[in-house]
Each structure stands twice: as C-alpha cells, then as structure tokens.
Amino acid sequence: MEHHIAPTTQRSVRRHNLGVVLRAVAEGGPRWRATLATDTGLNKSTVSSLVAELIDLGLLAERGAERRGSVGRPGLAVEIAEDGAVALGLEVGVDWLAVHAADLTGTVRLERREGGDLRGRPVTAVLDQLAEMTRAALDELRAAGMRPAGAVVALPGLVDARAGTLLVAPNLGWNDVAVRAELGERIGDSLPLEADNEANLSALAELWEGAGRGVRDFLHVSGEVGIGAGVVIGGRLLRGAHGFGGEFGHVTVDPGGPLCACGSRGCLESRAGLEAILGAAGITGNAAPAARAGELAERARAGDADALAALHEAGRWLGVAAGSAANLLDLSAIVIGGALGPLAEWLAEPLERELRTRVLAASWAVPSVLPARLGPEAAVRGAATQVLRRVLEDPASVRTLV
Amino acid sequence: MEHHIAPTTQRSVRRHNLGVVLRAVAEGGPRWRATLATDTGLNKSTVSSLVAELIDLGLLAERGAERRGSVGRPGLAVEIAEDGAVALGLEVGVDWLAVHAADLTGTVRLERREGGDLRGRPVTAVLDQLAEMTRAALDELRAAGMRPAGAVVALPGLVDARAGTLLVAPNLGWNDVAVRAELGERIGDSLPLEADNEANLSALAELWEGAGRGVRDFLHVSGEVGIGAGVVIGGRLLRGAHGFGGEFGHVTVDPGGPLCACGSRGCLESRAGLEAILGAAGITGNAAPAARAGELAERARAGDADALAALHEAGRWLGVAAGSAANLLDLSAIVIGGALGPLAEWLAEPLERELRTRVLAASWAVPSVLPARLGPEAAVRGAATQVLRRVLEDPASVRTLV
What we know:
Number of strands of chain A: 15
Low-confidence stretches of chain A: 1-7, 67-73
Distance between the termini of chain A: 37 Å
Largest sheet of chain A: 5 strands, mixed
Strand content of chain A: 15-25%
Largest interface: A-B, 51 and 51 residues
Oligomer: homodimer
Shape of chain A: globular
Strand order of the largest sheet of chain A: 5-4-3-6-10
Order of helices and strands of chain A: HHHEEEEEHEEEEHEHEEEHHHHEHEH
Structural class of chain A: alpha/beta
C-alpha cells in the first residue's frame, strides 16, 4: 500500500513548503532564492521549484531588472507579485456598508464605504447594494491585474459561520438571513465567500496588527449601536461551542433595567451602546449614529456637562461588565474599539475605577484599558486578513481562482 | 556537536516512551509485554526494557503466579503496582479540611475529612491541623507499601500557583499566606507539594471523570460560602493571564446590591452563596454551612415555602451570572457543584429560565444545566488526579521519591 501513501505525503509536504516559502517573502521582503534556502532550511533546488510554482500561481514575481547587468549575476530576487492575490473584507454595519482589499503584504489596495442608517431598510436592498459595491471592487482589482482570492463578510450579530447564515442581528432587525448564499448569488462570481461576526473579526485584526499585538488575554469591545466583543485567550480568538462567543453587549449589568432589543433586560448595550450614550447626552436627530458620535466627542472635548456625564455613566457600565469578564477570564487588557474607540479617553477612567473595585485580583493584576488602534476599519481588515492568512498557509488554494 | 544532542534526545524519547507504556497499562488494564508492543507500536525488546524500568520505579508489577504453570508460558502480564505510586489531594475548605489519596488506576486509597467552621481560626492552627492529617495519611500509605508521588492542596481563593501562595480568600479572611512553604514545613516531608484554586481543581475532576466528560465548553460552579468556578473551553481549563480565572462568585449581578467580602457590590456570591441562601431561608445557627445546607435540602423536599423561595431566588441570580458567562463564552453546559450540587434540583428551573431569556443565542443553543457528579470530593479528587496525570506523563519523575 505504500505507493498509495507516499505520493500523497509528498504532495502534502510540497503544499506545506509552498506556504513556508511564500510566508518567508511576505514577512521578510524581497529575497534571492539562495537566501530563501538559508531562511527556510530547504535545499536550493527545492526552493527554485517552489518559487517557480508560486510565480506560476501569480503569488510571487521576479524583481524586475535590477542587478540584471551586474557582474556575476546572482539571479533575480523574488517578491510578492503586485498583480498577485488580493483579499476582500466586506461589512454590513448598522449604519454603513464597506468593501476593503489588501494584498499579501497587508497593503490596502482598495477601500469603499457607503454610510447611512440601514435599520428598517429591506434586507434585499442592503444585500443588493453590498453586492454592487463588491462587483465594482472586483472589476477594479482585476482591471489592475490582481487576482481576488476570497472574501469574508463581517456581520453585526450571531453568525453560523459554517452555514454562512446570520441568525439574528437585533440592532439591524435581521433574522435568519443566508448571507453567504444570498450575497454570493448577487455578486455572481466564483469568488469564495464566508461570513463571520464583526466583533470576532475586529478582535482578530487588533490581535494581528493593532492594540492586541503581544497581549495574550484580552477582550476587544466593538462598540456601535450594539456592543460585540472578541475574547482572545492565550493569543487565540475564543469562538465557543457554536461560534456564538463574545456577546459582551448582552452581559447583564442591571437585571431589572431597560428592555433590550434581544428580549432580555439590563443588557450592557442598553446602558452603554451608542444610542444609549447619545440619548443620555441629548444628541438626537436623523444623522447616523456614527456621525452623532463625532458630535458627542466634540461636545465632550468642549467640556459639555451632559456629554461628559453620559460618557462617564457609559464607562461605569462598561466597567461593571468588563469586571465580570475579567473575574471569569483573568484578562490583561480591555481594548475599546469600534465607534467607542474615539470616545475611549472619556470612558477609560470610570471603567478603570470599576475594574479596580470589582475584579477580585485587582490588587495583583488589574486589566489595562487600551484604545483600539485600527478604528472603524478593524472588522473589514480582519476579514481580509482572514483570507490572506489562508493563502499564506496554503498558496495552492488559489489555483482554481480566476 | 551532534554527539551532544543525540544522547539527550534518546533519553527524552525513552522518558516519553515510559509514559506511553505506563498509560497503556493504567488505561487498558493488565497486559503482556507482547500486547503492549502491539498497543504502542514499540518493538518488543524496547517494551521489555521499559517495563523493567517501570517495575524498578515501583509503578508496574508482575501479575503474580497466574498462568505460571500453563503450557507455552507466555510470560507474566504486568499491572499497576498495588504498592506503587499514590497521589494526595489536600483541601482547606471554609468549613472542612480534607486529605484524599488515589493510586494510578484512579482507585481511592484513603479519605479523611474533618469538619468545622474554619472562619476566624488562626491560619497557623488550621495549617497545623492539615499538616497533622497529611502526616498521618503519609504514614498509613507508606505502612501499606505505597509511594506517595506528590500532593496538591486545594484552596478557596486566589492562588498564585507558581509561588504556591494564597493571595486572598475573602470567605476565610486569609490574605497572602505562603501555603506551599508553610504547609510543607509543617508536614516535614520531601513530598512535592503544590497549591491551586479549589474551583479549578473541581472543574478538572468533573472534566476528567464527572459531569463534564465529553462536554468541551462548560462552566463548573463550585458553590460553597463563596462561589468559584472553573471555565473549560475546548476541553481545557482556562487559567487566564495569571491563573486567576474562574471567579464566577464576583461576577456583578446587581451593581447597587449588598457589599461583598471582596469589597465590591452585588457580587453573585452575596446573592447566591450558601450563607445568602441559608439566611434567606431563615436557617441560622452555629452549625457549619454544609450541615445547614443539608437542613435546607430537607426543608425544600418537605415543601417548606421559605426554603423553596430562597432556592428559587438563588437560582435566578445564578442564571443572571451564568447568562452573562454564556453570552461571552458560548458554553454548552453549566455544571452545578460543591455544596450547591445537592441543591441543583431546585436551582435548575429558575436558572434555566434566566438562560433562555438572557442568552442571545438561546434559540439555537441554550446551555444545559447539569448537577455535578463528584460531590464535595471534587476538589481533592482533582488535586490527586493532577499529581497522577503528571506521573503518567513522566513516570521517571518519581525516581527521587521515598
């Protein structure tokens, strides 16, 4: 039977080594084949063959004419192909749609964001609009010679990632929407498409390239109208038994408190979600919550008492919930992101005070409160990076792409 | 340099394989050497040599005279040595001290428990008493030919496991007690000694041999005077950034509620800890809380309205906190253990009702509420098993023991 096993193993070793070489270039920058052999411990002829396949896949390219005339001609260096793989992150927010593309070096190649409160708009109209934005982005990327390797769509609610279904998004009023199928059909492309929770993707983005780098245990709070979170434990995103973890906005902070859109009472987001803060600060009107959040920050900066009181109160409630999370999980940091990120300077002090009071281990280790680094792009960046990491793990997976 | 590396590697491979063989016997029962070779994939002469070393370490023994006269004489089977390694679990509870010993098959070889409310007793007197119990147990075990391989002491508070220090146990009123050093000195033995949080150890015991077997994501609630918990994620105990995770009793359920022994307000244990329930049910007196918990169960069984109301109220508060934990962690089960275990039949219904209301994903996956299986012995069993698992991983570690 061995002749059946050996070729498979060789193929899987080669497939693995394609990733080793591609990651060495993506992380280390342009490289000669000989350098790659030293970097990876693979022999030179293997490296040459792997590089040839990666060039063929459109992921690496020869580094143009430089050194071409030099004495001894050490061969051309290879680099990440400029017209190579590109990954898409898509997002349905409560008050925006976004499309983002990044190449294998992490460089942003395209960004589109269309604002406007989506609550109350028909699901089909929203998906039509996002599909239209995605198709336009794909055309633009392909016209520039790039090869889209996949897309992940970030959604503000409970997502069954395996089925690609949004089960519920209380703040959008969406229930049981087969986003992967519906959006995929509208885009009408062979592009691999997945769906995930926006708070999970934002937390991953902060872990990979933001405030969470080097922090192994933290909660990343994605505060918008709703409040989601990603829980990172030991440097890995916690997904839980069914992928439904991180619903920080539905931690009960006030059991007899106001009714939440989810049907429970006294959820954190009914006390510290953007609508609750804006309402307490007396900032009403028809502008999208994100725009009004800007107004809130301006007023707070100007010393407006109502704005400051509303932020203080929200920080306190965030601290009650974060204290509970820290007691359960022994976190090193609470990262404040999403629309709450720019408000973190006013939220942090009351939040920290609650942590010092409520965390049993506070005398030895009180979690730091940090503002997120990536801003409102965190979820789409995390979504695109999720695709890129898969290409870097298994470059041969792009073989079937257009 | 290779001659420096190879012997080390060979030794570490051999050390690893000692564990492979020992675990095969511990899990599979008595075995011939030839069967062990088949079971483990090691060759027969290697197995014979490893078995000889395990017999020399006192961990395996030849299986006596059986088959001795049989035709063909296939050699003696080996089994876990009856006079082999034994592991100790010790515990300082709020109202008991316990010592427990188990051998490599998991069979309990000794159990001692001394009741009495420890609150207010001097730390030194309590440690003197536990050391005395431990010394007596060691004498008894050694007299029976067993070799104690180590002890873990379970403590009802925040433990710095690396230092072996109890940082704080609000319900005992203990602060900063170097339990490993202080207790080790009193025992006056070369026995390796470690300290850990009782709720972590109880959760591990339920995971390994109780209600948590086969459940990959659950919260094990250790309810005594205080309420601790072990958080199991993906089949592993979450310890957090500093080992302080699982402080479920200090999840805030009622932010303006009663002052807790920890200094915060409205902690779960001030609403659903044993003292709170007994107080609400009107069961006062000088008996230790565990004894009064028995009285509470009797009254509830007899239909006493105050007892039932107190349990209903506690279940509701447990549900508020468990709902928050489930929203964050996407748990499959809430296991009710410790002194609350025998009360689970009355706590479960209001607890489940809160979960159904408060968990965002409840329509798709509401955590089950399960009674713990192991009872008040969970922490000492987990403590002893912790030692045993280490011996099974690395049998050579017992070489230096008496």
